[in-house]
Amino acid sequence: MAFLPGVDSAAGTTFEVTQVEDAVDASIGDGVCATGAGTCNLRAAVQEANAQAGTATINVGAGTFVLSLLADRLEEDAGGDLDVRGKLRLVGAGPADTFIQSAVPDRILHVHEWAVAEVRGLTVRSGVSSGSYGGAVRVDPDATLSLSDCGVFDSTATHGALNILTAGGGVFNAGTLDIDRCVISGKSPEAPVPVRADP
Predict the structure, then answer these.
(1) Counting beta carbons within 10 angstroms of the beta carbon of residue 149, is it exposed (0 to 12), middle (13 to 18) or buried (19 or more)?
(2) Which of 4, 24, 56, 166 has its Cα between 20 and 30 A from that of 34?
(3) Is position 153 within any domain?
(4) Alpha-carbon distance 57 to 94, whole Å?
(5) pTM for this model (two decimals)
(6) 161, part of any domain
(7) Overall number of domains in the chain
C-alpha cells in the first residue's frame, strides 16, 4: 500500500468512530476521542487528530454521518466543515457504505495549509460553499490530499462573478491532489465543473 509523502506508514494514534451524531470533543488534545456524552464521533475524532504530533488514523464504519453544527467564527473547528490541520488518514467501510454529508451551508472537508490527508473508502455529499471554492472538498495551498475508492456528489460552490459555473462544485485544489478510483460530480446542472485546480 502506498502512502503520501508526509503521512507516516508506521502505526500512530487510531480513533474508532462509533456515533453518527455531530458534536465537539470534550477535551481536545488529551488523546481521547470523546464528546460530552462519552462517545466518539467524526468531528471529535478530527479535532483530536489535529492535536496529535504524528499521523492519526480515523476509522469510520458503515452509516451516514451528518455534519449538523453551524460554523463558529470564533472557533472554526467547532462547527461547519471538518478542518484537517495535521496529518490524517480517514478510512471508511467503502463508498457504498460510509457517507459523510452536511446539513448546514458548508463544505464537508477542508485540508488546511501544510496539512497532509489520505481519505479512502467513503462518499462525501451535499456540501455547499458560498463565496469560496470547493463545494464538498477544499485543498489549500501547500496542503496535500489523496482521495481513493471514494465518491463526491451533490455539492455546489459559488465564488463572485464565477458564480457556480467554475468554482469546483465537488473539489477545489490549490495544493497537491491525488485521485484514484473515485467518482466526482457537482450538483448538476448548477455545478457543471466538479473539480477545479488553481496553480
Answers:
(1) middle
(2) 4
(3) yes
(4) 16
(5) 0.89
(6) yes
(7) 1
